């Protein structure tokens, strides 16, 4: 099978207070309330660059080891669409903020081609559903929200690598505090097999969908090739279960880029870059190194924990009150296993340290078996709540001595024949009896203790 | 009167007539285009705000070529202004309504014009008034409906150089809402009036003189003689990129205009049509209906010049020529303080003469005003003589932010 090549364009909304070219707020409640003459494209209005957005883009560039351009420019990308107030988007075409970076993904270098700043268009809603709606409504609150576009080289060879990369990028952006997950990012991806032309899939809204879209598209292209069909260069979209044709290359739009004459050339000097670099918060890699030292973690544990900023924050909160190594081991293995099983990221759960720390406490004190603790975690992840009460409710706590002796007694009474055999000297039958007790305890009894209890009782 | 699209009743204050492409709060602003009929801005352009602060009152919004697209104010959706010196002749464009109104008015009135490729100088020259186009970025463009953002400038159109200097002093302020606004503290330009020009070096570009008609050239030569008698040193100079500037100007201006005009689609302001079919059909319907012929021509040509396959050949090449034109001027300004030349190659033509011209003939009329426009240099047109009883304008050009020098020379001539 020929090699699969995948490239990404990630559009990440930046967490600034105001929009990219006007003072309007980036957060708003009711439609069309965070707007002004600039983001509505009223005649006579002019854009003024938000310095914070620039600073954020430089931070992200530095975190991705990109070379920040001393001179960059904004361009106009012209196309007609109702959500685009000026019918051109202010973006960067020839001279982006930065170029030529790289990110290490599971030991593999993924090259970053460029990082650029651009404005988001407004958003369109179709009352009821796009297929039956007689009209569409436009909300310009999003118009002018700053986006950072990250463009990679086609260096990925699987959806797995893409998934890991996206998680890393999001973790980096969250550590930099330039992105919050309440604003969704959007991804365009290019997929090609061997020497065949590349196919672009536009506007995918989550990591999960990016992964499925790539898998669907690779499968589609492989099928086409196997059937002797030619792959055409085209743009497709992802429906949730398959990719669908949007337009072929012949009808690709020509955006007629020109320099935006309303915005002067952006000069960024070395001193400014250094100043931004110094102000940057701890990045995931630095945090990993620190956590390995501070909490005595091994590399794979630390790596797993910093893969998501919220998870790392959670770990550090948990580690304050409890053995940090025990916490690391449980978070990097069992918790992640449960999350993976449910196809959830940590931030999608509302799990807090107050829910999780008591579980580790129970483990430490031998009040719960590892197996039962994992069952408890499964329930907690889906619905965070008081874990002590939940453990009792689900009958997951290890039996007390009294409960154990009561249970043992009743089991032995049910197995009179085997009990007699044991009494007659058949010591092999003991294992069977232990098994019976553990089974009826639903895993809450410790084998050693059960053995002691049986021996004591039948002595 | 043929000069105003919208008239405003005003009791007191200094009357100010404003080109219709400059936004005025609560007063319809159409930029001379049907597509903006009924558009009432919610804010004043910064220049208008500052002029009002200085005591001016807006008395009307003056007719103009649609979006500034023209040399004779004949591409107007709301009336063609007639030259007050001869009603069969053009006022010039595109700020023709402002210049015509200022020239025709019985009492003193100030005007705010806008120039992209000579739209202040040309009508000032044809109507026999003063038109001052300041350094690019000196007056905020906030609230100006864009033609070509890298070229557009707001400036005064008045009866005297001193009035122009006064109005400029009031409107030339740094404005953080225009990213191309120059960070410079306000200056009183009237102090340059009444100053001697003795020893000032004035360059006469031979290319410019050659491009003017003989009768206009003779008037300009007479004017330079006057400047010489006032003590200026007249130096012959050469600006070799004069010819290349014209196509470069039009390519840049059209490319920018074609994106600036994309926003007009009948959605949030101006002309509306009955909603039907999809947005593409709707946009096309509104734009076909709302734009005039010249606007459509410029949008098409501008879009073509910036398309992927033609960019390098047109838009990018034009940007390179622009740099050469700027260098050309910078070289000359090492030798002279001010450049003096004819503003327009001819006097105001009659409407029947204009009817005979092809679009290309129209564009060629701007050959003397586009190089300074590309370079963003300050320039002023002052009336210096007449041919066939029609005014002739002298163009004075200085280096960046040296408005004082052209005001000094212009005023000295006016007082002579």
Please describe what this structure looks like.
The complex is a heterodimer of chains A (459) and B (416). Chain A has 459 residues and is of the alpha+beta class. Chain A folds into 3 domains: 4-275, no CATH class; 282-393, no CATH class; 401-458, Arc Repressor Mutant, subunit A (Orthogonal Bundle), CATH 1.10.10. In chain A, 41% of the residues lie in helices and 18% in strands. Chain A contains 15 helices and 16 strands. Chain A has helices at 51-63, 159-175, 207-226, 270-279, 284-295, 299-306, 309-321, 324-341, 353-364, 370-382, 387-393, 401-414, 416-423, 429-440, 447-458, and strands at 4-13, 67-68, 71-72, 75-78, 88-91, 98-105, 108-119, 123-125, 137-139, 146-152, 186-193, 199-204, 234-238, 243-248, 258-259, 266-267. In chain A, strands 2-6-7-10-1-11-12-13-14 form a 9-stranded mixed beta sheet. Chain A has a 3-stranded antiparallel beta sheet with strand order 5-4-15, with no helix packed on it. A two-stranded antiparallel sheet of chain A has the order 3-16. In chain A, strand 12, helix 3 (207-226) and strand 13 (234-238) form a beta-alpha-beta unit. The longest helix of chain A is centred in the middle third of the chain and has 20 residues, at 207-226. The radius of gyration of chain A is 29 Å and the shape is elongated. The termini of chain A are far apart. The mean pLDDT of chain A is 92. Chain B is of the alpha/beta class and 416 residues long. Chain B has one domain (4-243, 319-415): Alpha-Beta Complex (Amidase signature (AS) enzymes). Helices cover 37% and strands 16% of the residues of chain B. Chain B has an 11-stranded mixed beta sheet with strand order 1-3-2-4-6-5-10-11-9-7-8, sandwiched between helices. In chain B, a hairpin with a 2-residue loop joins strand 10 (379-387) and strand 11 (390-398). In chain B, helix 7 crosses helix 10 (312-332). Chain B is globular, with a radius of gyration of 20 Å. Chain B starts with a strand and ends with a helix. The relative contact order of chain B is 0.16. Classes of the chains: A alpha+beta (459), B alpha/beta (416).
């Amino acid at each position: 099978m020929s090699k699969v090549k995948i490239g990404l364009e990630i559009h990440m909304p930046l967490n600034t207070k105001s929009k990219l070219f006007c003072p309007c707020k980036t957060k708003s409640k009711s439609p069309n309330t965070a707007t002004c003459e600039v983001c509505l494209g009223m005649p006579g209005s002019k854009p003024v660059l938000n310095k914070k957005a620039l600073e954020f883009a430089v931070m992200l560039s530095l975190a991705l080891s990109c070379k920040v351009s001393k001179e960059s420019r904004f361009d106009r990308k012209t196309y007609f669409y109702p959500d685009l107030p000026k019918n051109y988007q202010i973006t960067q075409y020839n001279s982006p903020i930065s170029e030529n970076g790289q990110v290490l993904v599971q030991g593999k270098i993924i090259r970053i081609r460029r990082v650029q700043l651009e404005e988001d268009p407004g958003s369109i809603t179709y009352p009821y559903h796009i297929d039956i709606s007689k009209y569409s409504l436009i909300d310009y609150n999003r118009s002018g929200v700053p986006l950072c576009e990250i463009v990679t080289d086609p260096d990925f060879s699987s959806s797995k690598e893409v998934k890991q990369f996206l998680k890393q990028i999001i973790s980096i952006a969250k550590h930099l505090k330039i992105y919050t997950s309440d604003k969704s990012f959007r991804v365009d991806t290019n997929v090609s097999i061997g020497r065949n032309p590349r196919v672009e899939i536009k506007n995918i809204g989550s990591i999960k969908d990016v992964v499925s879209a790539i898998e669907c598209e690779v499968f589609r292209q492989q099928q086409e090739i196997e059937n002797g069909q030619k792959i055409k260069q085209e743009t497709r979209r992802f429906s949730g279960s398959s990719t669908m044709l949007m337009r072929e290359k012949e009808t690709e739009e020509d955006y007629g880029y020109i320099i935006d004459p309303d915005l002067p050339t952006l000069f960024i000097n070395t001193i400014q870059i250094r100043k931004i670099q110094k102000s940057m918060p701890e990045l995931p890699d630095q945090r990993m190194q620190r956590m390995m030292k501070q909490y005595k973690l091994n590399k794979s544990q630390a790596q797993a924990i910093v893969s998501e900023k919220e998870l790392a924050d959670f770990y550090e909160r948990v580690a304050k009150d409890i053995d940090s190594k025990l916490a690391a081991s449980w978070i990097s293995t069992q918790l992640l296993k449960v999350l993976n099983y449910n196809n959830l990221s940590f931030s999608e759960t509302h799990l807090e340290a107050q829910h999780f720390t008591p579980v580790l406490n129970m483990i430490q004190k031998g009040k719960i078996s590892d197996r039962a603790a994992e069952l408890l975690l499964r329930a907690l992840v889906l619905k965070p709540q008081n874990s002590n009460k939940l453990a009792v409710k689900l009958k997951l706590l290890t039996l007390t001595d009294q409960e154990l002796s009561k249970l043992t007694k009743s089991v032995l009474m049910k197995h009179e024949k085997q009990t007699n055999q044991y009494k007659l000297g058949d010591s092999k039958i003991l294992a069977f009896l232990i098994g019976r007790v553990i089974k009826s305890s639903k895993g809450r009894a410790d084998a050693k203790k059960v053995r002691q209890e049986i021996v004591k009782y039948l002595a | 009167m043929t000069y105003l699209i919208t008239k405003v009743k005003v009791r007191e204050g200094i009357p100010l007539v404003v080109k219709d492409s400059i936004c005025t709060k609560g007063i319809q602003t159409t930029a001379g285009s049907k597509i903006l009929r009924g558009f009432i801005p919610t804010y004043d352009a910064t220049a208008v705000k500052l002029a009002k602060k200085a005591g001016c009152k807006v008395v009307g919004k003056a007719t103009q070529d649609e979006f500034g697209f023209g040399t004779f104010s004949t591409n107007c959706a709301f009336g063609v202004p007639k030259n007050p010196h001869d009603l069969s002749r053009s006022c010039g464009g595109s700020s023709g309504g402002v210049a015509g109104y200022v020239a025709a008015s019985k009492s003193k009135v100030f005007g705010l014009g806008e120039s992209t490729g000579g739209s202040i100088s040309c009508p000032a020259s044809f109507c026999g008034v003063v038109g001052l186009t300041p350094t690019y970025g000196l007056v905020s463009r906030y609230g100006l409906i864009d033609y070509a953002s890298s070229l557009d400038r707001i400036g005064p159109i008045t009866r005297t150089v001193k009035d122009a200097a006064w109005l400029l002093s009031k409107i030339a302020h740094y404005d953080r809402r225009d990213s191309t606004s120059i960070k410079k503290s306000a200056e009183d330009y009237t102090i340059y009036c009444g100053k001697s020009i003795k020893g000032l070096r004035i360059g006469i570009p031979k290319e410019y003189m050659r491009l003017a008609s003989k009768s206009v050239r003779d008037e300009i030569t007479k004017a330079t003689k006057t400047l010489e008698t006032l003590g200026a040193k007249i130096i012959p100079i050469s600006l070799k990129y004069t010819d290349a500037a014209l196509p470069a100007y039009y390519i840049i201006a059209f490319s920018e205009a074609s994106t600036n005009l994309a926003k007009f689609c009948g959605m949030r302001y101006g002309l509306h049509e009955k909603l039907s079919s999809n947005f593409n059909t709707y946009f096309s319907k509104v734009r076909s209906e709302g734009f005039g012929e010249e606007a459509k021509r410029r949008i098409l040509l501008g879009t073509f010049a910036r398309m992927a396959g033609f960019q390098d050949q047109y838009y990018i090449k034009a940007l390179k020529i622009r740099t050469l034109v700027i260098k050309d001027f910078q070289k000359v300004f090492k030798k002279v303080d001010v450049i003096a030349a004819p503003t327009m190659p001819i006097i105001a033509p009659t409407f029947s003469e204009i009817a005979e011209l092809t679009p290309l003939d129209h564009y060629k009329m701007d050959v003397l005003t586009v190089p300074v426009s590309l370079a963003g240099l300050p320039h002023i047109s002052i009336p210096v003589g007449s041919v066939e009883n029609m005014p002739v304008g002298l163009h004075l050009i200085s280096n960046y932010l040296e408005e004082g020098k052209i005001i000094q020379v212009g005023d000295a001539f006016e007082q002579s």
